[in-house]
Amino acid sequence: MDYNPPNTRQRIAARRLARQGRPADGGSQVRPDARRSTLAWLASGRLVSLLIFLASMGTLGYLLTSGRYSIQQVTVAGASALKPNQVIAESGISGRPIWFVDAAQTAARLRANPYVESAQVELALPDRAIITVIERRPEVRWQAGSVQYLVDGRGQVLAAAQEPATTDVLVVIDRTTPELKPGDQIDPDALILTRALALRLPGEAAFTPAQIGWDFGIGVYVRSQTGQTIIFGQSKDLDRKLAIFRELLKDQTPFTYLDLRPSNPFYQNGQQAAASDQP
Fold first, then answer.
1. DSSP summary character for residue 98
2. Residues 179, 235: one domain?
3. C-beta of residue 66 within 8 angstroms of C-beta of residue 60
4. If you average pLDDT over residues 246-259, what whole number do you get?
5. What does the pLDDT read at residue 275?
6. How many domains does the chain have?
7. Does 163 lie in the same domain as 100?
8. Which of 105, 135, 165 is the last residue of a domain?
9. Sheet holding 73-77, edge to edge
10. In the 8-state DSSP scheme, what is residue 156?
11. Has residue 22 been placed in a domain?
12. 258 pLDDT higher than 90
């Protein structure tokens, strides 16, 4: 009787191939059908992962491109000399996707404006931005007679100044009030207008006043380095008045006296200004 020794190596190799899903030599070449392969793929969780990935990408694309998440509502707080639409325009954020707006960079851009001392920008989903600015408010001294008086932000006289004014102090010349005392009230509109002119004229009209004054009859006026007198009166319609003044300067229109108070301003060029209104 012949003895056939067991082929241990072949048996081990066959079992290993079976576990890997590969047929042993000489074994069946039949492979799982498409249905069974699909079921196996589904059972592996790959389809779920793919669906989650596609949904995530779709959501991200919607958030980044949808107009719903673009800055549409901008609220400006603290602006007085500056108009809210000026602040919004300089911020450069209107209509931009909220995800791409850098609040710190926007605030820094606003602080570059000479009228702005500090700025803060807050964003709120889905489409809001809140801009808070603190404008530069030059220290004001109100000069009556030969005495300069310290004035607070509301126009109340505090005391007579003891030290000479520095170059960054706004001194308003009052031609009609002989003297003041602590507790007296300055015209609030005149205080607002003189501050606004001190800030806006150099930047918007390239004009640095030699003097800013106030007169009971005509209101606020400024004088140029060459002696021109420009009457602004009150703060009402200041944008219109500044626009007219800029055009006259741009056209190099000669004048010695300009009254911007009427709806149809007038000017004259001569050695003598209007006698009734000359401060």
1. G
2. yes
3. no
4. 95
5. 42
6. 3
7. no
8. 135
9. 73-77, 128-135, 116-124
10. B
11. no
12. yes
